[in-house]
Amino acid sequence: MKIEFTLDKEDFLTYQLFTASNSKTVKMRRMRSWLIIPVLYIITGILLYYVDNITLLYAFITIALLWLVFYPLYSRGLYRRHYAKHIDEHYKNRLGRSGVLSLDNDALSITDEGSEGRIKYTEIDAVTEIPDYFFVGLKSGMALILPKAKIGEPALSQIIETIIQKSGAPRNELPDWKWK
Fold this sequence. Notes:
The protein has five helices and eight strands. The chain has 180 residues and is an alpha+beta fold.
């Protein structure tokens, strides 16, 4: 069983954002950034209230509330731009290269225009499905990105089922996942 596909910037970006959305460190950093600024503004506003400046109290509380409402939108774009820049710098030689994934009896074989690799089924940690992709996670922390639209659903589903069967890895289905 063989499939041929190419990965572009959007494929790598989706994987980076998916990984970030599951990272405790990234979640904590985003939560801290979302809360610290409004807390500082509210504290400053309260201090100004005690100095008899009620107008600035309202201004600072308004700014804090606006931050709480609009920061999540800003944060989404910030992380998207950060990872897009990272991909441009570090993955530029891998974009658009045609690759072939084939299943052997004991391993996956991956071949592209300049390299070849084999991954034993025992090294597969999990298979995760999101709306447009399958990510075959490896115990080393890396993953294979398999875009549904570029490969075709019937062939890809058959390969995924074979990988799960031979590796014994769990299948994680996240049909509602979206970068937030």
